[in-house]
Amino acid sequence: MIWYTALVLAVAVERCAELAVALRNTRWSRARGGIEAGSGHYPAMVALHTALLGGCLTEVWLADRPFLPLFGWTMVVVVIAAQTLRWWCIRTLGHQWNTRVIVVPGLPLVTDGPYRWLRHPNYVAVAAEGLALPLVHSAWVTAVGFTVLNAVLMAVRIRCEDGALASAAAADVRS
Predict the structure, then answer these.
(1) What is the distance between the alpha carbons of residues 65 and 104, in angstroms, rounded to a whole number?
(2) What are the Cα distances from residue 82, in Å, to 11, 38, 75, 78, 86?
(3) pLDDT tens-digit series, residues 10-50
(4) How many Å apart are CA 77 and CA 173, to the nearest integer?
(5) Is the distance from CB of 114 to CB of 97 less than 8 angstroms?
(6) Angle value at C-alpha 135, between 49 and 1, nearest 5 degrees
(7) Which of 13, 108, 134, 137 has the most C-beta neighbours closer than 10 Å?
(8) Residue 151, Cα to own-chain centre: how many angstroms?
(9) 156 vs 42, 85, 122, 149, CA distance in Å?
């Protein structure tokens, strides 16, 4: 369980790195007239992602969940793939990537990198990680709970993001 705790803590450090990038990108976007949408759901998203990490550790340690090697190592590969996809998204979007929904007027919709194939690849990474990270060490209650709540949150988030992008595109056409 020690190495699993180290894995979850490594993901937590990675999330802190994401937040640092997001903060820098928020400043960049706002300096260019970026408009935030959906700030009301942001605290729920932060709470859910924090609960994922805490739930992984709590369930494994308190419920004494086993590590099942074949399944566990497969889930480690999925976690690594999710992190790789997330950072590909961050690199592709550059200053436009954020944990918040902020649209800078006049910037084109990004359609290269993983966005060439998927409209919301970052959310695919989140869903994969949210399922796989707990399952590395059989924390199935956390995996199911996060997946269900994340699906509800992503429905709100994607609707918000698509609406913000459509509004910005419409405003660009009018001006």
Answers:
(1) 45
(2) 11, 25, 10, 6, 6
(3) 999 999 999 999 999 999 999 999 999 999 999 999 999 99
(4) 44
(5) no
(6) 95
(7) 134
(8) 12
(9) 10, 22, 15, 11
CB atoms within 10 A of CB 76: 17
What's the CA gap between 129 and 86, in Å, rounded?
10
- CB of 28 closer than 8 Å to CB of 97: no
Residue of 137, 134, 154 whose CA lies nearest to 52: 134
Tokens, residue 82:
């999710």
| Tokens standing for residue 39 | 């700030």
103, β-bridge pairs: 35
Structure tokens at 51: 């609960």
**E strands present in 86-160:** 101-103
pTM: 0.93
Q: What's the mean pLDDT when you consider all of the chain?
A: 95
Residue closest to 21 by CA, chosen among 94, 102, 124, 113: 94
Write out pLDDT tens, residues 39-76. 999 999 999 999 999 999 999 999 999 999 999 999 99
